[in-house]
Design goal:
2 copies of one chain form a homodimer.
Chain A: H1 9-22, H2 27-44, E1 46-52, E2 60-62, E3 69-71, E4 78-85, E5 93-100, E6 105-114, E7 117-126, E8 134-137, E9 140-142, H3 144-147, H4 160-163, E10 169-177, E11 187-194, E12 205-208, H5 210-216, H6 225-232, H7 251-259, H8 270-283, E13 287-291, E14 299-301, E15 306-308, E16 314-324, E17 330-338, E18 342-351, E19 354-363, E20 371-374, E21 377-379, H9 396-400, E22 407-414, E23 424-431, E24 441-445, H10 446-452, H11 461-471
Parallel strand pairs in A: 6-11, 18-23
Antiparallel strand pairs in A: 1-16, 2-3, 3-4, 4-5, 4-13, 6-7, 6-9, 7-8, 7-12, 10-11, 14-15, 15-16, 16-17, 18-19, 18-21, 19-20, 19-24, 22-23
Helix pairs in contact in A: 1-5, 6-11
Chain lengths: 478, 478
């Protein structure tokens, strides 16, 4: 065996993806063909979700001693409680139920070249928590219980591309955190894999260019969270290589494209950004202690649900799901149902010709490592009406009150519909001419975000989702 | 306030460090001046370490129920037990005592320009576990208990440069793991900070160029572990920029310098290396459960010590320390005393003109995240004599049996003398013409290691130490 160097396929892949990003729908007729297909699938696959008292969830037990909720198999996930102390936070002490799902699942997008252009295999997927039933998901979206078939369902399609090293060329593969306000240390493996072999397209799946997926990100509640986080992990150059874009573009898109180059400058060096994160992670005395659900002081457990005594934040509810076109036809499960629609806002600004996003190093109870970078704003505004003024999230009013000409992206999108019931966020990218920094906020250049997301545990799921949305604007005309 | 980009001082710092790396001792007389200074300090500061039964450690209690050992203040660290299941390992199940030290300390090197060349402020520091008393340490080496002065000692010198954001320019700042066979999730903050102000040199401290420090790495048991891990975090370009080296060099040094450039190729792309680590971290079912020391099945606790029933691996012992020139003059503490001298071996090879190191993705019980990259070999050979043949570490015989012309570095160095008693490793870098890979080993280009160490939790402390040793060879003549 001779020793040789790997071809630098990362860079070639990025250039090929740039070509894919440039290819949107070929006019209204082409776009309509996608929506017709999607509507057709949505008619054939469905999930009917009915509320069921937590005490009556078939297959699940509520421990009489602790009040914790677990599956009979001890797999999937459990509902537990945590007590949280955060001396530096606006709220310094609270308790809450939380989902403990220690298994690392796979969120994967399969790529294959069609007519010389890389295409992404996307899936029309139904989830019980989606308010609109079907959304566009990655090729594979499977918990470990899922793909080891604990519930005896059918095999997860295309899983083999993400499991067998021999047949895949890895474009991206790392574990990333999920909603750390509701999940205790949950991580999923975010994968992008390319294949050159024949891939039969199963019902409910469709090849799309990156440009088409980017267009669809602007549609309300269409691209699901799992797809968005995987899209954020694509090589940034894949949405960037400026010469790949020939269409006329807005000034914003031109700045954005330039800002995706690793050679673009930055307000703070990456060393400084990492040092700031190290400082926050070291200095924040976040203490998260497991507590039985029955011992949570601020929450009321009934046979029906677990809710905060104020009625705010979220509830743990039970549902019965009857689904067609999914692995299992009928099941019960607990879900987290947030109270109200959230706001996720990314404030961006041109600094010295390079687009920067105002990021916060945000401690949350469920992170593996104290804090990750979050978008400028991430909250459910209604939750803050009862708190003292200082607790109102900074920049929330700036994001909500932005003038139309400042708003670059404005779409309502859902969080993961497998665990969260109707968890909607208004996702906004706002260009603002502010230069304020606070100890817990920093301007981070877009290419630095693209660099950090190549590693796990730097960007939280909301930040990754917004990065995918931001990428989608690089192709945009006026 | 105007918005402007940061100067790219990372790159300038790297070039300035390259100049520092090039400047070794100015002949034998200059070298002798260092050793005279070091010998003089070593006479004035000292630590006399006497064995004391674990039951008689002043200030420490051994919990009668659990057998765990903790300080009266509940600070510093505790000795606890863990039960470890590792189905994929050569040994699939064991238990052991382990040090739990949740506080994140600071290991920091202060840099200042002297006569146009950056110098590192190094400290002659005594530690109770050092077999030779004094070793060369970073500017600051302090646990949080240390610098918040729980034990009422004097203030840690130069700490302010690493604590006050206003006066420092950060060259490097991240948390890194430490010995995960003996520490449960211990991490220290590895920092390099530059200042431009006046820095009075206290007794026991000395400014050295990076080249001088690199020369001293070849001296037996002189540069301590804390210094080595911080040195590994310097920008690789700081030891690399080829044009900075004008001295004649061996073919090995020339290859090494070329291999430090991020533009050099690699056997596997960094994406592939990260994917492999993700695979190992996801697929390894490492289960580490806290167990009271009294419940450890394989270990014997006496009033004197805690030892494995075979007498192998290590013991937990007690010591009383009387020290001058340290923060506290007299104290007791438990320590881990390994049985026998270890071997840390890094096998390197020129692949396509680029130097690669054979790294293993090695699960250990104390990592925050299952596995990190370790050198080719990392073991105490004597521990393996009792185990079945398959358990003998791969490549150990290759490293031990290397011909003299293959050996690029060969020095006995110590692990941290604050917790480990006489923990010595033979550290060898061996150039070998093998092309073998196993599922748990990969060839990683040197510039990829330099890239990975810019983030926490990829390279374990032994790998970082060997990387610092490898860097020291870039300047080398024949």
């Amino acid at each position: 065996m001779t020793a040789s160097l790997a071809p630098s396929h990362d860079e070639r892949m990025a250039r090929r993806l740039a070509a894919s990003a440039q290819r949107g729908f070929d006019g209204d007729a082409d776009r309509a063909r996608f929506h017709d297909w999607f509507a057709d699938v949505a008619q054939r696959i469905y999930a009917r979700t009915e509320p069921v008292p937590l005490d009556a969830l078939t297959g699940w037990v509520r421990d009489p001693g602790t009040g914790d909720i677990r599956h009979n198999s001890n797999r999937f996930f459990t509902i537990e409680g945590v007590d949280v102390t955060l001396p530096s936070g606006p709220v310094t002490h609270w308790d809450q139920p939380i989902i403990n799902q220690p298994e690392v699942g796979i969120l994967g997008i399969l790529i294959r070249e069609i007519d010389g252009v890389p295409h992404l295999l996307m899936q029309a997927k139904v989830e019980p928590g989606n308010r609109n039933g079907v959304q566009l998901a990655p090729t594979v979206q499977a918990t470990r219980s899922n793909y080891t078939r604990v519930h005896g369902g059918r095999q997860v399609p295309y899983l083999e591309y993400f499991r067998v090293p021999a047949v895949r060329c890895v474009v991206s593969d790392r574990r990333q955190s999920e909603q750390a306000a509701w999940f205790l240390r949950k991580r999923n493996r975010n994968m992008v894999v390319e294949t050159t072999g024949d891939v039969p397209v199963q019902d409910g799946f469709r090849w799309l260019t990156l440009g088409q997926v980017h267009e669809l990100l602007a549609v309300e509640d269409l691209i699901n969270m799992d797809a968005r986080t995987v899209l954020s992990c694509l090589p940034a150059a894949g949405v960037t290589v400026p010469e790949a874009f020939t269409s006329p573009a807005s000034a914003f898109a031109v700045t954005l494209r330039r800002s995706l180059s690793p050679q673009a400058g930055a307000r703070h060096t990456t060393t400084e950004i990492l040092s700031w994160m190290t400082e926050v992670r070291t200095a924040t005395d976040l203490v998260v202690t497991r507590t039985p659900v029955n011992m949570l002081r601020e929450w009321r457990s009934t046979s029906e649900r677990i809710s905060h005594h104020t009625g705010r934040y979220f509830s743990v509810i039970g549902v019965e799901v009857v689904a067609g076109g999914r692995e299992v036809a009928r099941w019960c499960q607990p879900m987290i149902a947030p109270v109200g629609v959230g706001v996720i806002g990314l404030v961006v600004r041109d600094i010295g010709g390079v687009l920067h996003a105002l990021m916060q190093a945000c401690p949350e109870p469920g992170y593996v490592d104290v804090a990750e970078l979050a978008p400028t704003v991430q909250c459910i505004p209604g939750s803050y009406d009862v708190l003292p003024g200082a607790a109102r999230p900074p920049f929330l009013d700036l994001v909500l009150g932005a003038a139309p000409e400042q708003i670059r992206f404005d779409t309502t999108l859902s969080e993961e519909g497998g665990r969260f019931f109707h968890a909607l966020n208004r996702c906004r990218i706002v260009e603002a001419d502010i230069d304020l920094e606070r100890p817990d906020f920093r301007w981070v250049a877009v290419h630095q975000l693209a660099d950090l997301v190549q590693h796990g545990h730097y960007l939280n799921v909301q930040a990754r989702s917004m990065l995918a949305c931001l990428y989608s604007l690089a192709r945009g005309g006026r």
